[in-house]
Amino acid sequence: MGWIHQDDESDHEGFVVAVLPDGADAPRDTWEDTEKANAQDRNWAWSIKYDGADGRPRAAGVRAICLCGWRGPRQKADFATLETAEEALRRQWYHHAEVSMARTLPSRVQRLFDELEEAVLGLASPPREPAELDDTRPLAAVYAATLLRDHAERWQETAVRAAKADYSWEEIARALCTTKQSAHEKYRAAAEAFSSDTAAATGAAPREVR
């Protein structure tokens, strides 16, 4: 089994594969490969199957791949520091999955959205019977929508500031359903302030926001 995205309903699953000397990707690990790797306290069988020992082929590199067809860039096959190398590959795959799912809400958040929409629109629905008058509050619906808009703008800025640490403006713009230029113009100042505040708190140099 490979890396599973935290959203259980995602169709993204990541794997590490060896890049063979001829440049081709080796087949994904089988269950038997995984069992052998686990028996030797290894996360991935490539480090055993393609280590060049005892006549086995030696990997020319490794890469992360995804069940959806995505293939990450080729990396050095580092047999000396396997955990570090695999963690870097996992981060590449997770970045890919997150960008691909930028417009896919986690199931829990989607349920909350659906419930909220039903509640607000229910307040705004005209009553069909006199007995339903107490259930209809269009002014409260207006106020609820106004609060949601105001909160959403603040949440959006907070989310963009957090996303800028790992994602490009183009990737953020996709989630914002806008253009890269519009996203940059609207949120660059907030992202720069966030970078400076984070650097001050950690003692690191501020990251340049591009």
What's the helix and strand layout?
Layout: E1 3-4, E2 13-19, H1 31-39, H2 46-49, E3 61-66, H3 82-100, H4 107-124, H5 138-163, H6 169-176, H7 180-202
Antiparallel strand pairs: 1-2, 2-3
Helix pairs in contact: 4-5, 5-7, 6-7
What do you see in this structure?
The protein is built from 7 helices and 3 strands; from the N terminus they run ββααβααααα. Helix 4 packs antiparallel against helix 5 and helix 6 crosses helix 7.
Tell me, rounded to a whole number, the average pLDDT. 87
* Bulk shape: elongated
Strand order of the largest sheet: 1-2-3
- Given as residue ranges, the uncertain stretches (5+ residues, pLDDT < 50) are none
**Helix count, DSSP H or I runs of 4 or more residues:** 7
Measured distance between first and last alpha carbons: 37 Å
- Range of helix content: 40-55%
Report the portion of residues in β strands.
5-15%
How many β-strand runs? 3
Reading the helices and strands in chain order gives: EEHHEHHHHH
Rg from alpha-carbon coordinates: 24 Å
- Which structural class should the secondary elements be placed in? mainly alpha
Largest sheet: 3 strands, antiparallel
